[in-house]
Design a protein that fits this description.
By secondary structure, the protein is an all-alpha fold. It contains two helices and no strands. It has one domain. The model has no long low-confidence stretch (mean pLDDT 88).
């Protein structure tokens, strides 16, 4: 204890300084418990009520934006697929229509050929009939003009 007393004496620290030091330490603990901790709690609560909801809102907006982008991408893909299906359907319908038209054209060509053949046969029959009529009429005209019968 003497050593401590000599150190205090050398540093010129007396009992009053120790008491003041003790009071400062006690006041620091008291202020910490009664003033600093409640103020820090208020700051923490304010942070919880202002900054964190804003951060959560930003996160929610980012998530909503990502969902919107995903939705737009899926909508775009679906639209492209639907358009491709529509084009395939239209192409198939066009092919079927072309086949139908080609069939109708072939049928029409067959009918025209059949009609041409029929017309040619009728023409030949009419020509044959006219040849025989011409010969007969020529004989009749000659008989009337000559007044006698021709053989």
């Amino acid at each position: 204890m003497e050593l401590v007393a000599k150190i205090f004496e050398t540093l010129e620290i007396n009992q009053l300084a120790l008491v003041q030091f003790g009071l400062v330490v006690v006041l620091a603990f008291v202020l910490s418990a009664t003033l600093i901790k409640p103020i820090l709690a208020v700051f923490q609560e304010r942070d919880n009520l202002t900054v964190r909801p804003v951060d959560e809102a930003k996160k929610m907006l980012a998530a909503a934006e990502a969902a919107n982008v995903n939705y737009a991408d899926s909508l775009r893909k679906t639209s492209v697929e639907a358009l491709a299906r529509k084009r395939r359907t239209m192409d198939e319908a066009g092919k079927a229509e072309r086949k139908t038209i080609e069939g109708v054209i072939e049928e029409s060509n067959r009918k025209i050929d059949a009609m041409k053949t029929g017309i040619a046969a009728e023409k030949e029959a009419a020509a044959q009939a006219l040849r025989s009529d011409v010969a007969r009429l020529s004989v009749e005209i000659a008989e009337k003009v000559l007044g006698r019968q021709m053989a």
